[in-house]
């Protein structure tokens, strides 16, 4: 719907809507005129739930300082190690079951991966023999938390009952953070936070935001990328050359765009693409439309400088957990594509009443 609007247009109730990639990037990098705090920005949404420290830490000088101290929390290397430690057995099980001739629900496996990862990030000390249901409940709680942001496209002001429900979820899921922060191993997120001088308050906030930002988004991208590879008949190149998996991950993220819309508050009058935006207005950046200008999923697609990593945002608010998301998707693609033979999709069902378009089920088997 955004594409016919042109690069930027004012829409009743929504405010300004932009869908052109270079324009979106310009907004995300212009911290003088746009902020994620204030009506329309995601910071305003989560400040109501997580508290006033969001204002202090997630924009301006406080945010720049936090990003500096947090820059080594998620490198490509430690993210891959984190994903393997938390969810390696899930991926191995997917490959083994497919190779044995079983049908596998990739969407369900993706939810389990994310649940295990979130339990690790939040310092939830579940027993080693905990059933899958314990991790799936962690995922479901994150899903419920994200769903509380439904219907906020026109306004990021939450009703009191929704705020209280969200606070209850956050309190429950982060109850183990203080103890884990105190003695977590240095190779865990909370341990790295402690070693990097990130305070307990900051670490709790980061864990909460990762729960919101990395639950539905990661599970959706894993299952949808597996479906895209199948639907575009591009399994054979991947099976012949596993070195193409990073390309599959990049294309999967581009086409699905886990953060399809990004909101910003206009903090000062500014002219953008010939239009005058006034202080305290809001702008919606339709990253999904911008990323998909390049065309359909294609492993052979060359690098497109217009979009770059726009699916993760841009500027100083580029997604901190991006390397983790890439590692999660890469391992799922590898698990399905290296099981012995090409796979086919047996059935698929679509999730309803969710923040991010996703599969409720995606059942595959080897041909």
Automatic annotation (TrEMBL):
<comment type="similarity">
    <text>Belongs to the cytochrome P450 family.</text>
</comment>
<keyword id="KW-0408">Iron</keyword>
<dbReference type="InterPro" id="IPR036396">
    <property type="entry name" value="Cyt_P450_sf"/>
</dbReference>
<keyword id="KW-0349">Heme</keyword>
<dbReference type="InterPro" id="IPR017972">
    <property type="entry name" value="Cyt_P450_CS"/>
</dbReference>
<protein>
    <submittedName>
        <fullName>Cytochrome P450</fullName>
    </submittedName>
</protein>
<dbReference type="InterPro" id="IPR002397">
    <property type="entry name" value="Cyt_P450_B"/>
</dbReference>
<keyword id="KW-0479">Metal-binding</keyword>
<dbReference type="InterPro" id="IPR001128">
    <property type="entry name" value="Cyt_P450"/>
</dbReference>
<keyword id="KW-0503">Monooxygenase</keyword>
<dbReference type="Pfam" id="PF00067">
    <property type="entry name" value="p450"/>
</dbReference>
<keyword id="KW-0560">Oxidoreductase</keyword>
């Amino acid at each position: 719907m955004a594409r016919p609007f042109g690069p930027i247009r004012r829409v009743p109730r929504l405010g300004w809507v932009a869908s052109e990639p270079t324009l979106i990037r310009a907004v995300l990098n212009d911290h003088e005129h746009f902020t994620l705090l204030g009506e329309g920005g995601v910071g305003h949404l989560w400040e109501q739930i997580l508290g006033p420290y969001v204002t202090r830490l997630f924009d301006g000088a406080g945010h720049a300082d936090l990003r500096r101290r947090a820059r080594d929390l998620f490198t490509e290397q430690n993210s891959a190690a984190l994903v393997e430690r938390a969810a390696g057995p899930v991926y191995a099980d997917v490959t083994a079951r497919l190779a044995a001739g079983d049908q596998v629900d990739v969407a369900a496996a993706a939810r389990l991966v994310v649940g295990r990862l979130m339990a690790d990030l939040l310092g939830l000390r579940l027993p080693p023999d905990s059933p899958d249901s314990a991790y799936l409940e962690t995922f479901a709680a994150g899903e419920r938390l994200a769903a509380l942001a439904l219907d906020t496209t026109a306004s990021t002001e939450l009703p009191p009952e929704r705020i209280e429900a969200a606070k209850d979820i956050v309190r429950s899921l982060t109850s183990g953070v203080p103890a884990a922060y105190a003695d977590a191993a240095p190779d865990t997120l909370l341990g790295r936070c402690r070693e990097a001088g990130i305070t307990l308050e900051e670490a709790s906030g980061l864990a909460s935001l990762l729960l919101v930002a990395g639950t539905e988004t990661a599970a959706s991208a894993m299952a949808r990328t597996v479906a895209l590879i199948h639907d575009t008949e591009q399994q054979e190149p991947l099976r012949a050359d596993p070195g193409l998996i990073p390309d599959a991950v990049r294309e999967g993220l581009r086409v699905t765009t886990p953060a399809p819309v990004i909101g910003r508050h206009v903090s000062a009058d500014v002219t953008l693409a010939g239009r005058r935006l006034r202080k305290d207005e809001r702008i919606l950046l339709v990253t999904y439309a911008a990323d998909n200008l390049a065309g359909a999923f294609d492993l052979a697609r060359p690098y497109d400088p217009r979009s770059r990593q726009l699916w993760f945002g841009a500027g100083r608010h580029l997604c901190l957990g991006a390397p983790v998301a890439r590692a999660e998707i890469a391992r799922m693609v590898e698990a399905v594509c290296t099981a012995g033979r090409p796979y086919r999709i047996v059935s698929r069902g679509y999730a309803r009443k969710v923040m991010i378009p996703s599969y409720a089920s995606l059942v595959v088997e080897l041909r």
